[in-house]
Amino acid sequence: MAHSLSAKKRVKQNAKRRTINRARKSQIKTQIKHFDSAISSGDVETASEQYRLVVQKLDKTAATSTMHKRTVARQKSRLATKLNSLKAKKD
Q1: Which of 23, 38, 82, 87 is the most buried (most CB within 10 A)?
Q2: pTM exceeds cut of 0.70
């Protein structure tokens, strides 16, 4: 248990940041699920729109250091690969 005032404050700050970070990561996971469902349905337009939204969320999360920028880059790359393979199948 924290004894000093600064340690008590740090515990409060950590709890607050943890909730914010969890919410952001949850939003990203939800957005990725929407993207995956659009990919599995085979709709290129919907998948492209969902990809744009996922990338937007990921970039905002990387800017706030909730997730590392390279982790975000890797996820965006993998999602883009899925989208491009869907587009290649449709052509």
Answers
A1: 38
A2: yes
